[in-house]
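Per your request, structure below.
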C-alpha cells in the first residue's frame, strides 16, 4: 500500500468511529429524554409557572401504574427501548385526524357575532 492509501484508510476509519460515537451519544440522549417524559407521567404540573417536564411536581405519581409487570416500550421515531417500562404505558403515533373549522362568508359571520 502506498502512504496515501494508508492515510485515506485511516481517515475513513476515523470517520466511521466518529459517526458511531455520534450515533451512540444521540441514542443515549434520546433514551434520557424518553425516560424523563415517562417519569413525569401521572405527576402534577403547576400551570401558573411552567409545564415543562423538568418542573413536574413531586416524586409520587397521582395515578397508579402497574410497576410489577414490565415490557420493552416501542416509541415511534426512536425504536424499541431496552429498559422495561410498566405495561400500563403505551406509545403510538396518535390520531392522524385533521380538524378543520368551517369557513363562513361575511354575512354568516356577522349573524354569528350580532
Amino acid at each position: 500500500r502506498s502512504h496515501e492509501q494508508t492515510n485515506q484508510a485511516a481517515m475513513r476509519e476515523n470517520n466511521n468511529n466518529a459517526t458511531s460515537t455520534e450515533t451512540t451519544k444521540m441514542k443515549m440522549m434520546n433514551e434520557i429524554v424518553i425516560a424523563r417524559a415517562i417519569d413525569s407521567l401521572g405527576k402534577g404540573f403547576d400551570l401558573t409557572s411552567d409545564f415543562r417536564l423538568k418542573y413536574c411536581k413531586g416524586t409520587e405519581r397521582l395515578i397508579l401504574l402497574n410497576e410489577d409487570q414490565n415490557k420493552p416500550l416501542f416509541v415511534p421515531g426512536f425504536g424499541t427501548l431496552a429498559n422495561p417500562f410498566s405495561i400500563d404505558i403505551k406509545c403510538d403515533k396518535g390520531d392522524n385526524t385533521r380538524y378543520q373549522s368551517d369557513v363562513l362568508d361575511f354575512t354568516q359571520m356577522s349573524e354569528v357575532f350580532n
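The radius of gyration is 25 Å.

Regards,
D.
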